[in-house]
Specification:
CATH architecture: 3-Layer(aba) Sandwich
Number of strands: 13
Number of helices: 6
Radius of gyration: 15 Å
Structural class: alpha/beta
Order of helices and strands: EHEHEHHEHEEEEEEEEEH
Largest sheet: 8 strands, mixed
Strand content: 25-35%
CATH superfamily: Class I glutamine amidotransferase (GATase) domain
Helix content: 25-40%
Strand order of the largest sheet: 2-1-3-4-13-12-11-8
CATH class: Alpha Beta
């Protein structure tokens, strides 16, 4: 069973629907026992970094996330869920992130005629043989919605990059933790393949 962490974060239903389409058993929950009893855990998210950390703290989910990761369960952060796994964000100065991974979230720079937020399809350059991208070749297109992007401190954890005025770390993996800035649940066949790869991972 895959648990999707519910902290009022926006894109829960679309993630749940995509996983059910793939035949997965899914529970959307903020209950500690349900999340820690799951085989795999997903932290989705759309919205502001500071508000999201406030919700995770108020629902007592910060320790649940740390415990799930510590137990070795395959864990996937999506969009804001990726950003929350890192140390800090320009969007909410002074608000610490989960700090599970090293790096910071910074605003996409203005200029070059690019619209912010970045909304739409971009191609990925794959790196470091990410497990989420097994069987995916070339430079696949995926769907993004974001104004802030990841600068990871450890280049070896970066499994995909994209260009949007700057080089954006679009996906990362370390141990049992994976995360992507784009929305696999809205990225057509490529996104479904990524979610299928996640569902196959074993803790």
């Amino acid at each position: 069973m895959i648990a999707i962490i519910d902290y009022d974060a926006g894109n829960l239903k679309s993630v749940e629907k995509a996983l059910k389409y793939l035949g997965q058993e899914v529970k959307v929950s903020r209950d500690r026992e349900v999340i820690l009893g799951a085989d795999k855990v997903i932290l989705p998210g759309v919205g502001a970094f500071g508000d999201a950390m406030g919700k995770l703290n108020s629902y007592g989910l910060v320790q649940v996330i740390r415990d799930a990761i510590g137990m070795g369960k395959p864990f996937l952060g999506i969009c804001l869920g990726l950003q929350l796994l890192f140390e800090r964000s320009d969007e909410s100065p002074g608000v610490p992130g989960l700090g599970v991974l090293k790096g910071e979230i910074v605003r996409i720079p203005d200029g070059g005629g690019l619209k912010i937020p970045h909304i739409g399809w971009n191609s990925l350059k794959l790196r470091n043989n990410g497990k989420l991208f097994a069987g995916i070749t070339g430079e696949p297109y995926v769907y993004f919605v974001h104004s802030y992007y990841l600068r990871a401190k450890e280049p070896e954890i970066v499994t995909a990059v994209t260009e949007y005025g700057v080089s954006i770390h679009a996906a990362v993996e370390r141990g049992n933790v994976s995360a992507c800035q784009f929305h696999p649940e809205k990225s057509g066949d490529t996104g479904l393949a990524i979610l299928k790869n996640f569902a196959k991972l074993e803790g």
